[in-house]
Amino acid sequence: MASSVKYLRVPPNSASLAEARRRVFEFFKTACRSIPTIMEIYHLDDVVTPSQLRSIVASEIRKNAQVTSPKVIDMMLFKGTEELNLIVEHSKQRHHILGQYVLGREDSQDIGTKEQGSEFLKNFFRSNYF
Amino acid sequence: MGLGQLASRALLRSARLAASNPHHQFRRAIVTTPELHNSAESAAAEAHPEPDLPKRNPVAGARVHFPNPDDAIEVFVDGYPVKVPKGMTVLQACLMAGVDIPRFCYHDRLSIAGNCRMCLVEVEKSPKPVASCAMPALPGMKIKTATPLAKKAREGVMEFLLMNHPLDCPICDQGGECDLQDQSMAFGSDRGRFTETKRSVVDKNLGPLVKTVMTRCIQCTRCVRFASEIAGVQDLGVLGRGSGEEIGTYVERLMTSELSGNVIDICPVGALTSKPFAFKARNWELKGTESIDVTDAVGSNIRIDSRGPEVMRIVPRLNEDINEEWISDKTRFFYDGLKRQRLNDPMIRGADGRFKAVSWHDALAVVAEVIHKVKPEEIVGVAGKLSDAESMIALKDFLNRMGSENIWYEGNGPNPNADLRSGYIMNTSISGLEKADVFLLVGTQPRVEAAMVNARIRKTVIATNAKVGYVGPSADFNYDHEHLGTGPETLTELAEGRHPFYSALSNAKNPAIIVGAGIFGRKDKDAIFSVVDNIAKKINAVRPDWNGLNMLLLNAGQAAALDLGLVAESEKSIESAKFVYVMGADDENLDRVPDDAFVVYQGHHGDRSVYRANVILPASAFTEKEGTYANTEGCAQTTVPAVPTVGDSRDDWKIIRALSEVARVSLPYDNLSAIRSRIGTVAPNLLRVDEREPAAFSTSALRPEVKEKPDAAPFTTVVDNFYMTDSITRASKIMAQCSALLKK
Ligand code: SF4
Ligand code: FES
Fold first, then answer.
1. Where is the signal peptide (chain A) (predicted)?
2. What is the predicted ipTM?
3. CB-closest option in A113, A125, A128 to B651
4. How far, in Å, CA of A63 to CA of B42, rounded?
5. How far is A105 from chain B (nearest CA, A)?
6. Each residue's pLDDT tens digit, A58-70
7. Cβ of A25 under 8 Å from any chain B Cβ?
């Protein structure tokens, strides 16, 4: 269970961008592997599917796609690992997960139903206040 | 009177006493309010008895009206000369001179009782301090408000008042806005000498709205005077004498007035407080938003006090032209309806007949698809009672673009006369009613339809003995009136001059005819209006200097709907409609809608019409949006958002604007100012906010002749339950309790 990620510790710095990149993929895989656990401990079945969670993790990582410095990537990886640990250890509560990762990300979720229409309509679907 | 103001005045006085003190410059430096600076200078000026004293401003911008310039007299307040009309009291003269006298029993709008003695001031040559609220100002009077004698007198009065006042400020709802608290801080003694036991008084039951803690009462009798003078119910009174004096109802009886909530505001202490608000919040935690009321067509000015996302209470705001400083109980207490029965998600009715929450995206897509499948003449739109002008113009523009002309406002009846503004507003204006000397009420019970207009009529009747004639079903009035008849035949008699009341009408200088909007629903309304026009012509009610022909509307959005021309081509169209857009209309009879029609309900409450809806689009209530409403006298006012919207709801006009785009007939406005300029092209008067725009022409000369005679059917009661008239009030628990009492 959680043991797979529990004993991650700070690894030495990545020597090159390629190595940092490999580590990112490793991290992504670890995260994907813990998704079933996360679904279970936070009772997420009725709000989100594993594949959605996967794309949420992916989009979190892609947010920083422009970063090229291995040092910075290492730092962010460390933070990501820490976050993942907290989640897997149940140090968070359900609303943390929902609020941070599940709700309010319609943009990333229905990429298929991309909004056509004016600025007004886009704002309207987002909230009443604009 | 705010504590700050009082306390600063107390400070100021000490500063002035210390005028000879060389350190007073330093004292002046620590005060920052401009008012204080002003007086600090005046303190300096007082040292030289030169007449060119700096000008002081009247308290709260008070103004005097001199009915006759010869009657002006001059008095001196703390050495300042002020000119006041004859007959003003010393207290009023002091107000004009910029000195606010502490008081408990005196109230501008009530008769003078003079029983609390808090307003004592010293008058030169009088042996004792005088109660300024009851003493007329006399020419040349030299009034001193800050002498040691006056201060000592106030301190003594405070001590007596506090003798029997419980020390329960920490659990008192008035705490923080209590005159007694403020004034004992500012003028009271700094120690108590009282060691006996305090008296206690049995609490009285005044119904579900007013909570009483009678031990706190200081017997100022403001509430008693309010009940008998303004509300017109003789329920409250003073019982007993001396230390046994109590305020109460003579027999175990509730206060049956539609204005009873106002005693909460006028009670200077915490003896009468709001029952629904009891122990809910402290007043300093509340955020006040100045808005207007939408429960009737008066548009009373209110302040919405909210805490976080919740409306905690509603209190009146001063507007001399509309509600003075009172509001009706419905306005004050219906706010709990804003928390119940709210629609918070767009919903679609599934095949099983149950509603399922969906996203806005899907809901609008479904509606847009359906609206394109029906023929334009099968599209119908109904705007509800509480609709604001912005959403009504958006609805009209949208459905017009879809090719439909059938958009109307519920309760306006078939073919309302929307062409001439004078035909549906109160031409005399609410404050103008005070000048009338004879009233003719036709098919309207202002007491339930528009309580604040009724209060105005009552004020006029009491002040000038104006006569009131009433045509309609038997009703409860709180002033003298003559019940002339129940049906239109009485009107015909009046028009032909056969009725005994006709002489009163024709002899009147300023007759006011008030026709209820309930008449709109009658088939023979054109005939009735022409009879009324005839009466008006005969008694000369419409002249260049006086327009006494009035309509009294029922609902907040009604005047704006007529201004914007929300008039159906034919109301029958709803019986053959395939697509019905209901914008908060809960009193429209949707049974007439064919079974296969698609009904969209846009609104904030799950009220009557929701049961027939296929799609629900949740909208925001008037406390959550900015909207323009015109009241019955044609004065446009805007609401201001006080709390955030509930759930996933949106403002009404935004929903329609978004829907129009999804339906590929985009409306050309994206924000409030754009939609307002669109309103300006239809009804520019709606943009002149807080101003009453009188109608340009009078109707009687322009309305087409009507040949047929009115039916014999008597007028009916229009509002049978004062407390429950729209979706918000129907959702309110407090209003339900009041209605239960009403039925008893
Ligand atoms: S209940 Fe309030 S308003 Fe009435 S007499 Fe007592 S203190 Fe005055
Ligand atoms: S205010 Fe003058 S006696 Fe009460």
1. none
2. 0.80
3. A128
4. 67
5. 14
6. 999 998 988 999 9
7. no
